[in-house]
Protein: Peptidyl-prolyl cis-trans isomerase
Organism: Kitasatospora indigofera
Amino acid sequence: MPTVEGSFGSKAVITIPAGQPSGQFVIKTLSEGDRQTVSKGDWVTVNYSAKDWTTGKELKSSYDADGKPQLFQAGSGQLVPAFDQAVVGKKVGSRILVVAPPAAAFGDQGNTTLGVAPGDTVVFVLDITEALPQDSTLSGTMTQAPPTSPQVKDNGKAAPTITIPPGQAPPTDLQQFVLIKGEGKQVQTGQTLVVQYTGVLWSNGQQFDSSWSHGGAQALQVGTKSLIEGWDKGLVGQTVGSRVMLVVPPALGYKDQAQGAVPANSTLVFVIDILEAV
């Protein structure tokens, strides 16, 4: 069995024993955290160290200068079993040793990005830093926007109620209101966010989209033009743990194109809970 030096929150030093791997998929808790247990479907953030047992080569790590944590839904098949299955049932704050034979790692394809050849056994050390159930939401006293702006009613683990101010013309510029100020890290361009969100039309207050309507918390990349411009401009620089309301004019939304239930030239109002940023 490989041995591991170092503690949770730092790059692990992995020593491979002499001889060939057994071919068994091994998941071993090296140190147990004291936070909640990871359930299937949770959005999990994991730091990792890795070594190729077959070659003895140290692999890229999230702790490297150019590395970043891995964010994924536990048990959903998004990643190889070495990550996907290893975290389910473990507590946040735990350090896990994973010995992954090809079937639990990168199989007959290998992974050129990591430098793993086809058929190699890989040893991972996973540090579980966060887990967010799909029904996660923020709580706390909200600071309402001015009366001439939309008002928000919290509904717990359901979409908030957003009320458009009667008789008010929609703004022509992006408006941002921090309803709950989070104390987490600042959102950076290119990060993946885990969010709960709800969007309504300014014109009639009708809801046209909500994460609560399709599975709960969603992972979205911000600042890379994969979202509407109003989100990219309005979310970068906010802090994790914040509830933000964005009033997005057509020029920063869907412009003169209809989009599903959104008519052309619509002003959009979103309430967004920023749960995580990786």
The CA atoms of residues 190 and 274 lie 15 Å apart. The mean pLDDT is 96.
